[in-house]
Amino acid sequence: MASLCNSSSTSLKTPFTSSSTCLSSTPKPSQLFLHGKRNQMFKVSCKVTNNNGDQNVETNSVDRRNVLLGLGGLYGVANAIPFAASAAPTPPPDLSSCSIARINENQVVSYSCCAPKPDDMEKVPYYKFPSMTKLRVRQPAHEANEEYIAKYNLAVSKMRDLDKTQPLNPIGFKQQANIHCAYCNGAYRIGGKELQVHNSWLFFPFHRWYLYFYERIVGKLIDDPTFALPYWNWDHPKGMRFPAMYDREGTSLFDVTRDQSHRNGAVIDLGFFGNEVETTQLQLMSNNLTLMYRQMVTNAPCPRMFFGGPYDLGSNVELPGTIENIPHGPVHIWSGTVRGSTLPNGAISNGENMGHFYSAGLDPVFFCHHSNVDRMWSEWKAAGGKRTDITHKDWLNSEFFFYDENENPYRVKVRDCLDTKKMGYDYKPMATPWRNFKPLTKASAGKKVNTASLPPASNVFPLAKLDKAISFSINRPTSSRTQQEKNAQEEMLTFSSIRYDNRGYIRFDVFLNVDNNVNANELDKAEFAGSYTSLPHVHRAGETNHIATVNFELAITELLEDIGLEDEDTIAVTLVPKRGGEGISIEEMASLCNSSSTTLKTPFTSSSTSLSSTPKPSQLFLHGKRNQMFKVSCKVTNNNGDQSVEMNSVDRRNVLLGLGGLYGVANAIPLAASASPAPPPDLSSCSKAKINATTEVPYSCCAPTPKDMNKVPYYKFPSMTKLRIRPPAHALDEAYIAKYNLAISRMKDLDKTQPTNPIGFKQQANIHCAYCNGAYAIDGKVLQVHNSWLFFPFHRWYLYFYERILGSLINDPTFALPYWNWDHPKGMRFPPMFDIPGTALYDERRGEQIHNGTIIDLGSFGDQVQTTQLQLMTNNLTLMYRQLVTNSPCPLMFFGGPYTLGSDVESPGTVEIIPHSPVHIWVGTRRGSILPDGKTSNGEDMGHFYSAGLDPVFYCHHSNVDRMWNEWKAIGGKRTDIQNKDWLNSEFFFYDESGNPFKVKVRDCLDTKKMGYTYEPMPTPWRNFKPKTKASAGKKVNTSSIPSVSQVFPLAKLDKAISFSINRPASSRTQQEKNAQEEMLTFKEIKYDNRDYTRFDVFLNVDNNVNANELDKAEFAGSYTSLPHVHRVGDTNHTATATLQLAITELLEDIGLEDDDTIAVTLVPKKGDISIGGVEIKLADC
User: Fold this and answer.
1) Radius of gyration of the chain (CA)
2) Is residue 390 part of a domain?
3) PANTHER family, alphabetically (predicted)?
4) What is the pLDDT of residues 367-416, one digit of tens each?
5) For the sheet containing 490-501, what is the strand order?
6) Is residue 965 helix, strand or coil?
7) Mind spelling out the 3-state secondary structure of 130-163?
8) Strands, DSSP E only, in 1027-1129?
9) How would you classify the pairing of strands 777-778 and 781-782?
10) Which residues does the annotation mark as catalytic?
């Protein structure tokens, strides 16, 4: 066992370390998992690189967390080359010495890849950018319309025609493909040394220049200088399938030499190494987003890690950057044919076309793929920090050789391709959900694998063959280290002398604190420490030694913190072979040792502002008849939710997105509305609850009444020894599910033997019925805990006691409710444990849509959305972003407005509206359908408040709603609990697990850990899912071709999509004017029947053919929505009247219409009979 420690070092000279890190290791062979024979040995130097990639800056300050995640967060560091490796500016290749390219060390390409030679290379000029009038804008491939596709096909067809008529024309299709072959497969030499543009800092600039000229050639061939290449945005769920326009047989964009199994909508695997992953499409997408986070954020905090290491001309030691390794390489492999299969021409496949560098350019999708690779360069720099271009002169002055669209030869330098806009192109924005996809703890937090049951590392290594998953224990050099010690030294897990045949794909994964039954297809685990990977690649002809030898290191300090094992002396390690395991041997498992390290933080940040507006009618669009009008105070709330603080500075973007970002503000209740602490209900006056205004619940929802309510004590938390940890419902094992079923079964048994026992199943369900359907009254006024600031604290207390009752019934005080994490793609299906007939968790009164893995619609209002599952997931993440981030920058927007006892004017918070209510509706039976007992459905069970608690999934759903309270506060800014005393002192009444009655206050439920529970972490990808501009940016709808607003309104019935034009009060406003006044789109006198679901959507600058099922559009201004709900018995007037206001200042900026005097508005009805009195745009003071 080796001890590999360098104690006072700070930086490793490798492209895979940040500007403030250091590997600790003995000298070892060099290469981080891509291509080729490793036959040189390098030492690791512990210097710190500066921001621009130079190696001459020493520093004593190191940030451990990100740097060593960069070293080993996902793929670790294997044989990192010193940053001071020999490098010099790379000149353009010597075309006169161009030779045959090679497929591998013994097989040459059957044709010449050499470009036509200029008469005199010395006279080839440097390229100068031509003047331009308009940027070429590259769009995502999946959004391309037929006109664009026809243009692109025409251009590539003309390119292919040149192959027949002018085979040596440098702008022909094969000649353009040959550029990649020659530069990447050994045809070019400089000074007698072979040139290779992959696996070093040349990768990004070479391919950027390559696509630049290719794009201009394509535009020239169709006489369209504005034509831009598409990008295959495999980093977003909507782009994780092969772009459809390239899969049309018979077109010029089609290529027959592709993997046929990856057609027909297969989700790409961005970590693909030749083997198909046996998992769900959702898990693959989750893996992909996790990989993108690791490669763009964790592992690339500084230039050298992202771009790759300095290029040493002629060397076969490769130092690729993070993105070049993954996802760049795997996308090539996934698209190409299977190695060893038979090609259409009868030859044996080497991965052609995309799966091998020599042939990749022969597939038109190559340029679409590399367009997104190039986009990652821009996205990486946009993240900020030290993520800047390299400033080292050897990189900046490196050169390449290309022909332009006029067939003229040019030399180009790296320094001239750093700004895409100066080059004349840009990328149409798309959301980047991977930015918030850091792997979080799954099942093992705080649960230590029994290391005594595993063989120690000394009994396992040396390992002759890694042909199956193995687990072993290993001692740590020290435990329970202080933060100062952790900052000074990083704990490293080191694998020594890994050997394998480098002609094939290689990969094995490393996990901590799991056994060898781990599901290794799920990468989004904190326990996943990293992978060793290698792809086949050859530099030189004639090599016969195919055995690579490498060392592999993983940084684990933070990982051990995350999974709760930092105080353990011994831990469990599991290795899982993924590809080529039978050929992998590992000489030694080195002891865990310490080396200095640091961290770079990339926190999610957002502004935190509050509402500012002119007086307007009141109500935020959920449930019930609106018959009172309120004014909105033009004050900015302070952090604690009070309304007494005046502020002169208001952040327009967040505040007014809060007003109208997605669902708008309809009749927002004044924050200063009359409120007082809500006392617990008067149980002696409990009456029949109501299903709707005129129909009572057929049974009593009233709780058992204590003898004297005045003597009911306030609850005190019992002592605890261990937190209850609520797990995600989709990740539970059979033992947990059996426990949960047993507890609910015992609850249900009490209904038969002790029907009035307050801890019985129906009595617990009745709590929700009574509090939420008008059974309770206070001073003669109906009590309602929904649609106000009481919503979150009531349900938190409700679940608190319910959870303790369950634990008591199975004698397990640590039992915790699961949460249905519908905010993550992995949880966007109905939790399977609740869908097993005959079990206690099953409820027959559910809609058919919950079965068969259907994706939930977090905006559901009773009708199924006709769209793809991917689009639904995208909609869901967008909704979550809007409701948790955009629309709730301050407390009262998130929690809801102050509660006015007995009022039927409702002011719910963002999450209560969406996704809380739509999940209820989606699960429950369809309104009007026939229930199992023959009655007509009102949405039972989950789809109506009176019956929701009768479905066990209710508590799982509300567990995630409660989790959103924590997640919202974790975002920071002004996202804090309300400090208003009326809220803090409001009270509820519950029975505990022993059947004893207690009163509780809101102020005592603000910290879940003090209440004895917390949530197992899960990623929150919605944090980075802000809607971005789609098709209309800068393209104005012809407003003169559609009727004006005065011709359309008043509108008696909104029964189909309509478009109209409307004049703005002012255009081309200054930033100061925009900060002072928000532009508001106002819909007045919206009338509808409040007994049914109601919804219509609003879009700007689209026509009435818009696809209204895609919510992730910047053009999507918002929605008006309402769910049926009744406060009072006997109310026969079912017509609600409301006003909807949408903030559009930023939206008009985003879609490029801020300078227009008139804009187009489109309304799309989704549900209900709706009339609208009028529409106007006005400016409101901020």
Assistant:
1) 32
2) yes
3) POLYPHENOL OXIDASE D, CHLOROPLASTIC, TYROSINASE FAMILY MEMBER
4) 999 999 999 999 999 988 778 999 999 999 999 999 999 999 999 999 99
5) 547-555, 490-501, 585-595
6) helix
7) CCCCCCEEECEHHHCCHHHHHHHHHHHHHHHHHH
8) 1058-1063, 1077-1089, 1094-1100, 1116-1122
9) antiparallel
10) 180, 198, 207, 328, 332, 357, 370
Helix (H) or strand (E) holding 549: strand 547-555
Q: Are 194 and 539 in contact (CB under 8 A)?
A: yes
Report yes or no on 1038 lying in a domain.
no
CA distance linking residue 380 with residue 321, whole number of Å: 12
Helix or strand or coil: residue 1162?
A: strand
In a domain, 510, yes or no: no
Residues 563-596: tens digit of each pLDDT? 888 899 999 999 988 877 677 777 665 444 333 3
Are 812 and 739 contacting, i.e. CB atoms less than 8 angstroms apart? yes
In one-letter notation, the amino acid at residue 587 is E
Q: What ranges make up the beta strands (E) of 670-755?
A: 690-692, 695-696, 724-726
Of the candidates 330, 318, 358, which has an alpha carbon nearest to the alpha carbon of residue 34? 318
Closest to 442 measured CA to CA, from 359, 539, 524:
524
Tokens of 91: 């000149």
> CB under 8 Å to 811, separation ≥6 — which residues?
none
803 residue type, one letter: E
Cα–Cα distance for residue pair 834/942, rounded to 1 Å:
13
pLDDT of residue 447 exceeding 50, the answer is yes
What local confidence, expressed as pLDDT, does residue 42 receive?
Answer: 24
Domains: count for the chain: 1
Helices 953-971, 791-809: axis angle to 10 degrees equals 130
CB atoms < 10 A from the CB of 326, how many? 25
In tens, the pLDDT along 355-369 reads: 888 899 999 999 999
Average pLDDT score, the chain:
77
d(CA 357, CA 396): 25
Confidence bin at 662 (pLDDT 50/70/90): very low
Identify the CATH number of the domain in which residue 241 sits: 1.10.1280.10
Q: Give 588's strand partners.
A: 496
Tokens of 127: 């390229």
Burial class (CB in 10 A: 0-12, 13-18, 19+), 686: middle
721 near 1012, Cβ under 8 Å?
A: no
CB 679 within 8 A of CB 779: no
- Residue 322 in tokens: 């993070």
C-alpha dihedral sign at 22, 24, 26, 28: negative
Q: What is the pLDDT of residue 52?
A: 39
Residue numbers of the domain that contains 267: 100-119+145-409
From the number of C-beta atoms within 10 Å of its C-beta (0-12, 13-18, 19+), residue 932 rates as exposed
Residue 418 inside a domain? The answer is no
**Separation between Cα atoms, residue 378 and residue 372, nearest integer Å:** 10
The helix/strand/coil state of 1039 is: helix
Residues 349, 356 contacting (CB under 8 angstroms): no
Give me 440's structure tokens: 């979080």
In this structure, what DSSP letter does residue 371 have? H
Write the single-letter amino acid at 285. M
